[in-house]
Amino acid sequence: MRLSIIKNDIWQICEICDQDGNSPLLGWFSELNPKYQGSIKRMLAILNRVAKEKQGPNLLSTDISHEVEKNESIYEFIAGDLRLLWFYSNKQRRMIICGCQHLKKTKKVNKKEVKRIIKIKRDYISAHDAGEIVCFDDGEQL
Fold this sequence. Notes:
Blueprint: E1 2-8, E2 12-16, H1 24-31, H2 37-52, E3 65-69, E4 74-79, E5 82-88, E6 95-103, H3 111-129, E7 134-136
Parallel strand pairs: 1-7, 2-6
Antiparallel strand pairs: 1-2, 3-4, 4-5, 5-6
């Protein structure tokens, strides 16, 4: 499994990449309608703030970040209609793993995306336990 470091400060924020190391988050941002540019900037500001503050995501209000699946400890960052699902690494302190992003279309949490991030989390734990994590920082910081 490939992880890309997208923010590296007090907190490390990583994302699960495809086999070629491409960033799904950057690709998604570039595909979004230009009307979402303000929300993209807010999402990037959220990630920057979380990485730089000792409290990390705990400093954010529930309007910006909250737990969406308690049994699996899955969270989301919120910027306008943009949603970025993530979880804490249970293998490394102060590390957040981002895995799914989507546009909010209804008032309820997107169950399909939550199932997807749960699978990603389980795959991450298995890959980490097997020593199969490749973590890289290609310098293309968000």
